[in-house]
């Protein structure tokens, strides 16, 4: 089985370890690919290569207003294999769900006591093919009452996503190599928060893999809105 | 008088979880056991921990490879997995607990995941 973790922070963004160190740990934990997250700026450099693992270039957009998000998404779309949005603000969460250029909405519950999403957002996310992220670091690094709030928010988001059949991905969001967990462990947290085991495993394997595959086809010109070129 | 051992059909079904501790410096096994109990109490609570029925197979722990076996009830495997994944520190050492596999017997746990050929 192929496991993907699309949210890995390295020294290129806010992380402590280099891409090489993270790739080495990911190989040890059995990942087929990891997403190296960089915050979106106008100049985007090439990712370093790593042997034996697929490095996915993920760009994270951090916006404070919905309009800024839409502008930045237009600029960043062609430069990223996976386009992520730094969630937390309800207006930004909703704009991200309603924007079909966005692939993943990260931690919609960040810094909030509620879950940051409602039925309108999640339905829009389903229509626009936006995946909602379950952030493992939020659970790992919080404790006592804060962890309870986080867990209940995640549970609520999963319930909504199940109702509207919205895609979910689980990621470790590790900022150093000790924050990473193997794919099956990430799936177990999705499982105990309410997803069936098969669906929970898909959130770390086929769902992120398909997002990466589709976007690579789009970037290479083999896929456009509603049209796909088949090889003969 | 001690109670008689239950017949196998009446014993609760169990699973054996084979784990590996990944860390830079060697970890003391006793501290790992404490970390599992503390995390289990924090995350599952008293009721959840009692339902999980966590039991350490102490003599299976290998100091060199840092691998070992942990026993739990068959319907709490996912909960125990989560408890293990939420451990980030053992004593003063940062670590990751990686689960190598889940089996139904100690024998298959040793042969499949711990590279023990003497049982074959």
Describe this structure in words.
The complex is a heterodimer of chains A (232) and B (120). By secondary structure, chain A is α/β, with parallel strands linked by helices. Chain A has a single domain (4-228), classed as TIM Barrel. Chain A contains nine helices and nine strands. In chain A, the strands form two sheets. In chain A, strands 1-2-3-4-5-6-7 form a seven-stranded parallel β-sheet, sandwiched between helices. Chain A has a two-stranded antiparallel ribbon with strand order 8-9. In chain A, helix 1 links the parallel strand 1 and strand 2 (33-39). The model of chain A has no long low-confidence stretch (mean pLDDT 87). Chain B is globular, with a radius of gyration of 15 Å. Chain B is of the alpha+beta class and 120 residues long. The mean pLDDT of chain B is 90. In chain B, helix 1 (29-43) crosses helix 2 (45-52). In chain B, 29% of the residues are buried. Chain B has a five-stranded antiparallel β-sheet with strand order 2-3-1-5-4. Chain B has four helices and five strands. Chains A and B meet through helix 5 and helix 7 of A and helix 3 and strand 5 of B.
Question: What is the strand and helix layout of this fold?
Answer:
The complex is a heterodimer of chains A (232) and B (120).
Chain A: E1 4-9, H1 19-28, E2 33-39, E3 54-61, H2 66-76, E4 82-86, H3 90-97, E5 104-106, H4 119-127, E6 131-135, H5 136-141, H6 145-164, E7 168-171, H7 183-192, H8 197-202, H9 206-220, E8 223-224, E9 227-228
Parallel strand pairs in A: 1-2, 2-3, 3-4, 4-5, 5-6, 6-7
Antiparallel strand pairs in A: 8-9
Helix pairs in contact in A: 2-3, 3-4, 4-6
Chain B: E1 14-23, H1 29-43, H2 45-52, E2 55-62, E3 67-73, H3 77-85, E4 89-90, E5 93-103, H4 106-113
